[in-house]
Design a protein that fits this description.
The complex is a heterodimer. Chain A is mostly helical. Chain A has helices at 3-8, 11-47, 54-71, 75-79, 83-86, 88-112, 117-139, 167-189, 191-201, 203-208, 213-238, 250-259, 265-283, 287-290, 317-329; strands at residues 153-158, 161-166. Chain A has one domain (3-329): Orthogonal Bundle (ABC transporter involved in vitamin B12 uptake, BtuC), CATH 1.10.3470. In chain A, strands 1-2 form a two-stranded antiparallel sheet. The relative contact order of chain A is 0.18. The termini of chain B are far apart. By secondary structure, chain B is an alpha/beta fold. Helix content of chain B is 37%, strand content 25%. The chains are: A mainly alpha, B alpha/beta. The interface between A and B is medium-sized, with 16 and 23 residues.
Chain lengths: 341, 236
């Protein structure tokens, strides 16, 4: 779609442009944030520390998917879906295992020694740097494609414009919706899921009730690790796979978890979408939506070519701002989570 | 053989001992009440008993088993249940889910036990879908006791079950505790409201400075002028 073509068209084209560049774009990044933030918030709720290595757990999950793809390149062709997506359950399982092992090696010894939470947070920063190093050591610093070939593009014609979604984006929406419903059912219907909520509510009382804290901790890492692998892989399918794939989105993920109310899984989903949409709308070029008004506006008003609230290169400022605003005005987040002390 | 026998139990947090040789013995189906001034070690006694604190000397036997320093998760399976004084419900979970968590160690069906708890505490039945954190103090205490009953314990440990409650609720909770005991559960409770609690007690233990000062039936202790003068607030 060229600039000239847009100018000549009816407002319907501007509407479609808004759907494509704001609604779909916001939903994509919001879903990714949600998948990451659910893990961060569950880990905080159960283990009481901010897990900084979570972004790199997402990246590791995507690299595990890449590795599986190299081992079984034909898996996707069998069902007509991207190979990385077909192998995603295996990647999720392996990343869940990785998360459990990382806990066993690095976090559990500290937990047993009864250190203050900040010590474990620092340990997670160490794990984060270590994982970044390990990934670069084996995979280099280059950019890879997780989606093989040309992406399938779905076009929904509206007027003479198209609402455009690619196959990985559709898979991302579908997967996120299913994952959130599954998590909801797990937390509200299953014995172990309820035990997780009990430990998050009151760990001492959970122990007194005979709930095994270690079992709950393990379950938490399995869920957080699996969702991290899914988020990382689906993001890499949509864009590209780089060693800093998810480290760059760690801040928005934390913002999403905090906005949603730390320790609240539904809050994390809402927070992820909120941060994703805010970020997208902040860099959205509103002048395109104003152009159809050209004929009715007086001559002396000029519509600038760029009318975004925040220039694209400063996008990262948006989650920062949301984070600070929430911490100042509503520290418990929208879903009334814990205060971070 | 008694259901519970604590003999010469010494325990504390880190350095200083809070308990210096506490002896408590109760038979099955009895109500035992521990009273004493602040800092006497009443709550600490329950915590030491329930494995929440390291016992450095003495032994604790429960139903024929040595349970000294046994982890709480194991004690629950042996038939002991503990209701802490504060933070004794899961606030964001519904009343019903709180009771389910009490039955976490059970692998059999426990619907009849939930009904039994609603029988002891009728107000909970109406509020079963409400988060426990939204209930009044007295109702929260009912949820807490109900949760602890879900394992069908042989002995229920209550840490100041009426602390902070209005007199109306205090009477109601004491009444329910007696009913629970009549239904076959042994009770060991620590109480600030010493007079009312001792009136229900088969056995009373007056602690001071982490040691037993007086032991007897509830009626004996209430009648003892020295106990009354020193520990029950004036010799009425």
């Amino acid at each position: 779609m060229t600039e000239a073509g847009l100018l000549a068209a009816l407002p319907i084209n501007e509407f479609v442009f808004f759907i494509n560049k704001a609604v779909i774009a916001g939903l994509i990044i919001g879903s990714i944030y949600a998948l990451g933030a659910v893990g961060v918030t569950l880990v905080f709720g159960i283990l009481r520390f901010a897990h900084f290595a979570h972004g790199d757990m997402m990246t590791s999950g995507a690299f595990i998917a890449l590795l599986l793809m190299l081992l079984a390149p034909g898996a996707g062709a069998l069902v007509g879906l991207p190979t990385a997506f077909v192998l995603l359950p295996v990647a999720m399982l392996l990343t869940a295992g990785l998360a459990v092992v990382l806990d066993r090696w690095f976090y559990r010894p500290l937990r047993v020694a009864n250190v203050r939470p900040v010590v474990i947070v620092m340990a997670s920063v160490g794990v984060m740097l270590m994982m970044q190093g390990v990934i670069r050591l084996f995979a280099g610093t280059g950019t890879r494609q997780l989606y093989v070939g040309v992406k399938d593009i779905y076009r929904l014609p509206v007027g003479n414009a198209n609402i455009v979604v690619t196959e990985p984006q559709l898979l991302l929406f579908g997967f996120t919706a299913v994952a959130i419903v599954a998590l909801h059912l797990f937390l509200t219907r299953s014995r172990l899921g309820k035990a997780m909520r009990a430990v998050s509510d009151n760990a001492d009382l959970a122990r007194v009730s005979g709930i095994s804290i270690e079992q709950v901790v393990r379950t938490t890492w399995i869920i957080a690790g699996a969702l991290a692998a899914a988020g990382g892989t689906l993001l890499a399918l949509d864009v590209t796979l780089k060693p800093d794939l998810s480290f760059n989105i760690l801040l928005p993920i934390f913002a999403a978890a905090i906005v949603g109310g730390i320790g609240q899984p539904y809050g994390a989903v809402a927070g992820g979408l909120l941060v994703g949409f805010t970020e997208t709308l902040a860099v959205f070029n509103w002048s395109i939506l104003l152009r159809p008004l050209r004929p009715v506006l007086p001559e002396w008003i000029e519509i600038p070519n760029q009318l975004a609230l925040v220039p694209t290169e400063y996008k990262i400022v948006v989650p920062f701002f949301i984070l600070i605003a929430v911490l100042v005005w509503r520290p418990t987040g929208i879903f009334r989570g814990r205060l971070i002390k | 053989m008694s259901l519970l026998a604590m003999a010469g139990v010494t325990a504390g947090y880190g350095g200083a001992n809070i308990l210096n040789g506490v002896n408590i013995e109760i038979e099955a189906h009895e109500i035992g009440v521990v009273v004493g001034p602040n800092g006497a070690g009443k709550s600490t006694t329950l915590k030491a008993l329930f494995g929440l604190l390291t016992v450095s000397a003495g032994t604790i036997r429960f139903d024929g088993t040595d349970i000294t320093n046994m982890a709480p998760e194991k004690l629950v399976r042996l038939g002991l249940s503990f209701v802490p004084q504060e933070f004794n419900v899961f606030p964001t979970m519904s009343v019903h889910e709180n009771l389910e968590m009490g039955a976490y160690v059970r692998r059999d069906s426990f619907g009849h036990l939930i009904d039994q708890v609603y029988g002891f505490f009728p107000p909970l039945k109406e509020k079963r879908r409400q988060p426990a954190g939204e209930l009044s103090g007295g109702q929260r205490q009912m949820v807490a006791i109900g949760r602890a009953l879900m394992t069908e314990p042989k002995l229920l440990l209550l840490d100041e079950p009426t602390a902070g409650l209005s007199p109306r609720y205090m009477g109601e909770i004491f009444e329910r505790i007696v009913a629970i005991n009549k239904a076959g559960t042994g009770i060991l409770m620590v109480e600030q409201n010493a007079r009312q609690a001792l009136a229900l007690a088969d056995r009373g233990f007056v602690l001071a400075g982490g040691q037993n000062r007086f032991t007897g039936t509830g009626a004996e202790l209430l009648a003892d002028p020295e106990v009354a003068r020193s520990f029950l607030g004036g010799g009425e």
